[in-house]
What does this fold into?
Amino acid sequence: MSDLLYIQSSPRQGQSQSRRLADAFLGAYLQSSPTAAIDVLDLWAEPLPVFAGDHVAAKMTVIGGLTPDGREATAWDEISRIHARFASPGAYLFTVPMWNHGVPWVLKHLIDTITQPGLAFGFDARAGYDGLLGGRRAAAIYTSAIWPTFGEDFHASYFESWLRFVGVEEIHSVRLGSNLLDGEIERERRRARGEAAELGALFARRPALVAA
It folds into this structure.
């Protein structure tokens, strides 16, 4: 079981600004907690199953209060295994580059795969939705080429709304924007790396409320 799940959403490897900031976070995190177990989920290297057909049918069966069987059961087991990996740690580190004012499709794919009834959320006809991943904390590294100089933000707003929906209320972030327009971008990158390192040290010093 891991203490921290690091989810990579950028395909740019060493050229990725979000990954560089995540490296600063992890460096400080491991310096403060050298024995911590970190699980790395690279969404470009570990493709998720296509959420369709039997997976959707299984979800609707569960929503209806029934138990999937046959092919639906196989599909639901697949979803449950991915969700179990996500739910295992008490803390998350996400790289979240902006794509077309939103999050990369691979991250949305993960969200759609694990956000399932009885796993990530519950529902009551009177009380409404109830996130089932409470007690966890998340760090989000937001990067963009142009925003906030131009454009709309369906980026952090969407992503943090989803985190709260599944019960993750403690959310920290580092933002680095305007990579193509800011004449002081190197100064901004240093600022963001410093913030990421401070956040990594904070996560290491404060134990998760959920046992990893």
About this structure: The mean pLDDT is 90. DSSP finds six helices and seven strands in the chain.
